[in-house]
Amino acid sequence: MSHQEIIDRLRRLVRRMRWLNALQLIPDTLVIYGILQLAFNQEVVMLFNTGFSRERAGMVTILFALIDLCVTGIRYNDRLAGRRLISQLSGHLTTPEADLIKQFERFK
Q1: How many domains does one find in the chain?
Q2: Membrane-crossing residues (predicted)?
Q3: Does the predicted TM-score (pTM) go above 0.85?
Q4: Which domain holds residue 24?
């Protein structure tokens, strides 16, 4: 793979990771919302203005947590792919390329 192809892939990966960071907020919020509703409601748990039994509300919250786990796994795989791409780079990097690598390294 050529130097330019690696940089292009890394650029796309940084864009994707930026998008995934924003997307991660949704399942995180849903899990917290579900847990709080389970904690503060008794027999009927209200999730999104719909009444659920405690068992069903617990299952919905578990599904939210699984979605959150899946997005986290995708982000982890993207970080690994980015590290592999960076390790393939050799030679002198231009300033924009070095900045791109710094942007990638900010994602945790």
Answers
A1: 1
A2: 20-40, 60-77
A3: no
A4: 3-106
Task: Give me the torsion for CA of 79, 85, 90, 96, rounded to 10°.
Answer: -70
Could you give the residue ranges of the DSSP H alpha helices within the chain? 3-40, 54-88, 95-106
Question: How do the pLDDT tens digits run along the chain, 108 residues long?
Answer: 788 898 899 999 999 999 999 999 999 999 999 999 999 988 888 888 889 999 999 999 999 999 999 999 999 999 999 999 988 888 788 888 889 889 888 876
Distance CA 79, CA 17 (A): 8
Give which of 25, 37, 85 is closest to 61, Cα–Cα.
Answer: 37
